[in-house]
Write a structure and sequence with these properties.
Layout lengths: L8 E2 L9 E6 L2 E6 L1 H11 L2 H9 L5 E3 L18 E5 L13 H20 L2 E3 L7 E4 L2 E4 L5 E3 L9 H18 L4 H7 L5 H7 L8 H20 L14 H16 L22 H18 L3 E5 L5 H8 L4 E6 L2 H14 L3 E5 L19 H4 L4 E4 L3 H7 L4 H9 L4 E6 L5 H7 L11 H9 L3 E7 L6 E6 L4
Parallel strand pairs: 10-11, 10-13, 11-12, 13-14
Antiparallel strand pairs: 1-2, 2-3, 3-5, 4-5, 6-9, 7-8, 14-16, 15-16
Length: 475
């Protein structure tokens, strides 16, 4: 390892924990522990809790790394490292504001279950952020091993407010208001502040014990603290919290979260598109065959399904030889079905929320703490079926820019061109002027040939749609 050309790179979002910092090196993940962090981990790995969670895979697979890994670390990052751990790499790093409802709920339940289990071994979880969890397919896995600390009698859960903002508030907004939380979450990054959630939730919800205890009462307390600020008062003394009370709090949250379901996802516009569209079953078979053929030729490690809908073509790609598929869509009903498809098939498939006209940017401190979509991974291939017209016509993005953006995502891909004659495009043009004279197949192919090589085209019999496979020239 000492002869490697590449240096270890610090993961920007890990600077907040002085006990240990995360680094990447040639696709591998390392956590460098200070003396304090090494002491915490020693207490963890000797526990029954650690044996159980490493056996069932609910905490990321972790092992001790050789000490010479430090030779590739930049000297300016020296903070007295005493131990080095290596973690199993995540196939694709995703963020809570990209998770569909059922995946955010699943992550919340994992967090609570691990906390309850940790307390049985006299361990505590000191925070409540959703960024401590990553998704392997649709399975949530806890990745921050230093969040577990020895429990001391009377300890509070100092991540309680954090949990309520990161998990509970967004789930409640979806369950009681049919409000997609994703844009609100992304705007605040750490979640939806409890006082904001208390304002947004309907009055009927506030009588629910879950909402009243963990949102309304907490928001009221926050207001009182603001009103007291600046007054000459003695600071309040926090009484020790009995362990039984902490367990009761966690169980109360778990029961409430387990009962939440989103409103309205069965009525979304595109949730039944797989069965109700503008082409027949024969053309569906043609599209599936085209995807199978080109995926089987390349066998990509990571494939992105842009506009994945319910995941039919994601599953097709996996069966054709793709190792891992990440799907992106903005329709919550379709994503719920995609999650169910991944679950039922045991697929290596992660469906995520994404507005393709406004993809996730770099966020957080210095815009690097959370990476942009393109900065997180290099896809080997993508599939973009029935996407072009939504960007070029519904969002007025110039056709050339749509093509260049898509081709920039991966060295190979499959794109479906949907012409103006298609009923779906006609629906987009209804009640508005057609200001898209350049939106033609000829112009699309001209733009594509300007940045890639067309490998194959395939016209669909029941419509004028065309499938195009491309590959970028090698540098």
């Amino acid at each position: 390892m000492t002869s490697s050309k590449a240096k270890m790179q610090a993961v920007p979002g890990s600077f907040r924990d002085p006990a240990g910092r995360v680094y990447t090196w040639e696709g591998r993940i390392f956590r460098l522990l200070s003396g304090e962090g090494a002491a915490y981990f020693s207490a963890i790995e000797g526990s029954d809790f650690w044996k159980r969670v490493t056996r069932d895979g609910t905490v990321v697979r972790t092992w001790h790394a050789p000490g010479d890994v430090l030779s590739d670390r930049p000297p300016e990052d020296d903070f007295g490292v005493e131990r080095v751990l290596e973690h199993a790499a995540v196939p694709f790093v995703s963020y809570p504001f990209e998770w569909p409802f059922h995946l955010l709920k699943r992550a919340a339940l994992l967090h609570l279950d691990l906390h309850l289990l940790a307390l049985e071994s006299d361990l505590n979880i000191v925070d409540g952020t959703a960024y401590n969890i990553q998704l392997f397919g649709t399975k949530p896995v806890f990745i921050d091993v230093l969040s577990f600390r020895p429990y001391r009698a009377g300890d509070y859960w100092f991540g309680y407010q954090q949990f309520c903002s990161a998990f509970l508030a967004p789930l409640l907004l979806s369950a009681y208001r049919d409000v997609p939380y994703n844009a609100l979450y992304r705007g605040n990054l750490s979640g939806i502040p409890v006082p904001h959630a208390a304002t947004l939730l309907p009055s009927r919800a506030k009588w629910n014990p879950l909402v009243f205890m963990h949102i309304v009462a907490q928001a009221s307390l926050a207001r009182r603290m603001v009103n007291k600020r600046g007054r000459d008062e003695k600071p309040s003394v926090r009484r020790p919290l009995p362990k039984a009370n902490l367990i009761g709090l966690l169980k109360s949250l778990r029961k409430g979260v387990a009962g939440l379901e989103p409103l309205g996802i069965e009525k979304t516009i595109w949730s039944d598109y797989e069965k109700h569209n503008s082409y027949d079953d024969a053309d569906t078979a043609v599209k599936a065959g085209f995807v199978r053929r080109h995926v089987s030729l390349r066998k990509p490690e990571l494939l992105w399904d842009i506009g994945c809908n319910t995941g039919f073509y994601s599953e097709t790609a996996l069966k054709a030889g793709a190792n891992y598929v990440v799907g992106f869509d903005f329709d919550m009903g379709a994503l719920a079905k995609a999650v169910a498809r991944s679950d039922s098939g045991g697929l290596k498939y992660l469906p995520l929320y994404m507005d393709l006209s406004n993809p996730s940017p770099g966020l957080g401190w210095a815009n690097t703490e959370r990476k942009s979509l393109g900065g997180r991974a290099n896809a080997d291939m993508f599939v973009a079926l029935a996407v072009i017209h939504h960007l070029a016509i519904a969002q007025n993005v110039p056709l050339r820019e749509v093509v260049e953006w898509l081709v920039g995502l991966a060295p190979a891909g499959i794109i479906e061109f949907v012409p103006k004659s298609d009923p779906m495009v006609q629906l987009l043009l209804k009640d508005r002027s057609d200001i898209f004279p350049d939106y033609t197949l000829e112009n699309f192919l001209r733009h594509l040939n300007g940045c890639a090589r067309v490998v194959e085209t395939c016209e669909m019999a029941s419509s004028d749609r065309v499938l195009i496979a491309y590959e970028r020239p090698r540098a």
